[in-house]
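From the methods appendix. Each design record in this collection lists the tokenized structure first, followed by the designed amino acid sequence. Records were kept in a plain field format so they could be parsed without special tools. The example shown here is representative of the layout used throughout.

RECORD:
FOLD TOKENS (369 positions):
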């Protein structure tokens, strides 16, 4: 494959640098040797240091897709006899509810449509009404639509009620401001292949160290996704199962790049990417599904124009090297998604807009639109 064969406008896996991809090719390495321990220690340390929480938090790694970290957090932290409050305003909130159900964890659910952020007062009320709830689980950036939930305000409400929060920040950590050390937040989940700009295969839970001892000695709901087990072994330079050695090696390279760019600068680059994209798409007549004020700077859901189908637009964009992303479920019939994470720059986003303009001309002249 040639360099940057596709420009990925799907919300992860995102475009990576040649340097990160080349780090996948390395000498074969046994994960029970010091050369591997050094890489794992460095990745775990860089994750917490990049977020400014090296003294209070630990990163616990899982070989798996991002859902592995979400499932590990939910299955491991809700004590027996307690319950979970889940915020559901998209596919990933719904996934947290399904995870709780699969592990027979009682769950109360606050449901909203896919363009409505959770009102923190609703969380406060649910916590008052349900003393059995120990944790609140919510998605920071609902990748379903590009909607941001008010995580910090929810954390404040939970802390005031003596409860703790699990945040799925899979598609926003390092790409959108988030105070991971906010009181109330104990566990934040993310993966290598979104705003970290690394390769798919490793997910992680960023855990407040003070919240970890409570998990030890509890009967595990899962063998593979036992957070306490992974934490304890990783602290001893070990892993309970075979890790994705090469993926971790590339993840370290991505963390070096993140340190060079700086988290704040990356957040600013993504915001500028989104601004260029949205301004250009508005000029082409596209409107945005999520109301202003609730939008992330990482992904935009645009309404399809009359007569324009997702499949025709997708194929026309792909012929030009761009991969856009369908809406999930019913949304596919009236809207589509464009992410601007990864190595993309504002200049790339200008080219994306030009490609959309060409596609509209092509599809209109061929009568497909
Ligand atoms: C990508 C994503 C996940 C994890 O998806 P995987 O396919 O398991 O990597 C979880 N939550 C959110 C909000 C996501 O965007």
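DESIGN:
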């Amino acid at each position: 494959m040639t360099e940057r064969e596709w420009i990925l406008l799907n919300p992860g896996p995102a475009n990576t640098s040649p340097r990160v991809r080349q780090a996948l090719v390395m000498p074969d390495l046994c994960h029970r040797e010091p050369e591997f321990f050094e890489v794992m220690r460095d990745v775990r340390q860089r994750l917490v240091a990049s977020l400014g929480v090296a003294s209070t938090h630990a990163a616990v790694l899982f070989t798996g897709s991002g859902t592995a970290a979400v499932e590990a957090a939910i299955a491991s932290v809700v004590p027996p006899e307690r319950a979970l409050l889940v915020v559901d305003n998209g596919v990933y909130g719904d996934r947290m509810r399904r995870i709780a159900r699969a592990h027979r964890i009682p769950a109360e659910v606050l449901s909203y449509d896919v363009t409505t952020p959770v009102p923190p007062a609703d969380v406060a009320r649910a916590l008052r009404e349900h003393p059995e709830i120990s944790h609140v689980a919510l998605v920071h950036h609902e990748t379903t639509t590009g909607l941001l939930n008010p995580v910090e305000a929810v954390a404040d409400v939970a802390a005031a009620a003596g409860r703790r929060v699990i945040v799925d920040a899979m598609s926003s950590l390092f790409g959108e401001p988030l105070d991971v050390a906010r009181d109330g937040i104990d566990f934040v989940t993310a993966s290598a292949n979104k705003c970290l700009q690394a390769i798919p295969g490793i997910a992680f839970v960023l855990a407040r160290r003070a919240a970890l001892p409570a998990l030890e000695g509890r009967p595990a709901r899962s063998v593979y996704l036992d957070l306490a087990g992974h934490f304890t072994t990783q602290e001893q330079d070990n892993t309970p199962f075979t890790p994705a050695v090469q993926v971790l090696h590339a993840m370290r390279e991505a963390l070096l790049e993140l340190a060079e760019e700086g988290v704040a600068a990356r957040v600013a680059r993504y915001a500028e990417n989104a601004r260029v994209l949205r301004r250009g798409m508005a000029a082409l007549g596209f409107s945005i599904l999520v109301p202003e004020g609730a939008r992330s700077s990482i992904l935009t859901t645009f309404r399809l124009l009359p007569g324009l189908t997702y499949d025709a637009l997708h194929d026309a964009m792909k012929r030009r090297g761009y991969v856009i992303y369908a809406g999930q479920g019913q949304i596919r019939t009236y809207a589509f998604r464009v992410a601007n994470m990864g190595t993309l720059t504002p200049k790339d986003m200008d080219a994306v807009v030009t490609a959309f303009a060409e596609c509209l001309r092509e599809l209109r002249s061929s009568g497909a639109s």
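APPENDIX NOTE: The mean pLDDT is 97.
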